[in-house]
Amino acid sequence: MIQNSKLTYSLLIIIPLICGILASIVAVKTLMWWMDRSPQTNDFSLSVPGLDQVPEGVRDQHDKVKIGEFFKKFDVTCDKNLSTAQWTRFRGSDFSNVSTDNIALADNWKESGPPVLWRIELGEGYAASVIQDGKVYILDYLEEERGDALRCFCLLTGKELWRRWYNVDTKRNHGRSRTIPALSNGRVVSLGPKGHVMSVDAQSGDLKWSIDLVLDYGAEIPQWYTGQCPLIDGDIAVLAPGGDNALLIGVDVQSGEVVWQTPNPHHWKMSHSSIMPMTLDGIRMYIYFALGGIVGVAADGENSGKILWETNFFAPSVVAPSPVLLDEGRIYLTAGYGAGSTVIEIVRRADAFEAQIGTKYSPRDALSLEQQSAIYYQNVLFGIMPKDAGIRRQQLTACDPNDTSRFITPVDNEMRFGLGPFIVADDKFYVLDDDGTLTMLRFEHDHFRKLSEYKVLDGHDAWGPIAIADGLMLVRDSTSMACLDLTQDERWSRR
Asked: What is the pTM of this model?
């Protein structure tokens, strides 16, 4: 009787314990299954630092890759009867994200929306395109080949001319590809999700040189993979490894020779922000918003690559937007996840520069952005507020660049968008919402007036930056890209 009682007592303890362990295992398996599902079947996605870090092993294990190993050419020709208009790098020719094309765009669209010249399917991601000589270049991820691919298309038809790719196993992490190539002097330079740099001939697709930023410079790939867009400045490709001994490097775009290297004494890391060239007090420099701080690096002469100034006054843990030059040596900086924004002023004293810090604002108190970069246009600073900005959350907003806490536009529920891109062309704003809805607006003194809107993409997470040339706009969502004819006379769609 006593033994039976002991047995019963033991079972009362053991059985619930076993059930609890089994329940925990089922919960973990369910969570893993849920997180691994395709985003097309999951409308809700976590995007909080710490909850969707780079998949395990990306930082600790980095296999050697034969960059640019494979090539395929297609039997396609392109119409060369296009103007010289181009969009050859992130944020356009002058990095303002304002089109300099002198071409009239339609002020409104038909009920059927702007004409679509073509659509193509892409690997999951947010990488965007560049345009030159009637061709489109984009760094894609090939699902079946499991590799990064630099692909070249005809601008008017969307037909693929060639692709160069390499095998690299990249797990889904809010997509894979998310950078924009750079075009100059007959070269295209791309930067893959895991830090693989590839330079190819823009016409033939021939591989010229490559760099592995992790293996060659000790770069640490940031969470959500590499978001930095490469820069070509004249004959130099400028990259930011954020490695142990190289914060920035300058590479001869023709030969691939590293001609200068910026030290990294504070061990700042690679961010998602891109390097912005700026001229301050007559001196050209590269401004980089790293994880750890912001730095100005000499761009010319024998001092190329030398640190001119630096500050860690504003050092968020996640940085995606790039620095924006205002005037009088002032630089606007912002980041998401509650970091807010600030403006620093770079002052030259004798032969040295120093960064004078300004007020650091929360997202509720001044213009702030989370993912895209601000636009400084006609002496006004524009941006889409983050979701933690209070009553102005996700609103397209204008502010005084001399005081970013002074909003010019009122609170307006009609002007709320997501994390998608926005651009200025023909004195009009174009905003692409998360779901692929394109809205055309005009800024009129202290408010935006909506001119037209249309859902131009069928997918979700339409976050890739917009490119425009010859009145043709390239937009993308997470799995597709479309070419729109925005010209006033619909010239390209009538061909």
From this structure: 0.86
Give the phi and the psi of residue 182 in degrees, each rounded to 5: -125, 140
CA 337/CA 321 separation, integer angstroms: 12
C-alpha–C-alpha distance, residues 460 and 124, integer Å: 11
Contact 184, 133 (CB under 8 A): no
Q: What is the largest CA-CA distance in the chain?
A: 98
Rounded (to 5) percent helix, strand, coil in the chain: 10, 40, 50
Query: Ramachandran region of residue 126, left (φ > 0), alpha (ψ -120 to 50) or beta?
Result: alpha
Q: What is the pLDDT along the chain (495 residues), one digit of tens a residue?
A: 434 444 344 444 444 444 454 444 444 344 343 333 333 333 323 233 333 333 444 444 677 889 999 999 999 888 766 667 799 999 998 999 999 998 999 999 999 999 999 999 999 999 999 999 999 999 999 888 888 999 999 999 999 999 999 988 767 666 678 899 999 989 999 999 999 999 999 999 999 999 999 999 999 988 888 899 999 999 999 999 999 889 999 999 999 999 999 999 999 999 999 999 999 999 999 999 999 999 999 999 999 999 999 999 999 999 999 999 999 899 999 999 999 999 999 999 888 999 999 999 999 999 999 999 999 999 999 999 999 999 999 999 999 999 999 999 999 999 999 999 999 999 999 999 999 999 999 999 999 999 999 999 998 999 999 999 999 999 999 999 999 999 999 988 887
Judged on CB neighbours under 10 Å (0-12, 13-18, 19+), 393 is middle
Helices (H), 169-292: 213-217
With vertex at residue 122, the alpha carbon angle to CA 121 and CA 125, rounded to the nearest 5 degrees, is 140
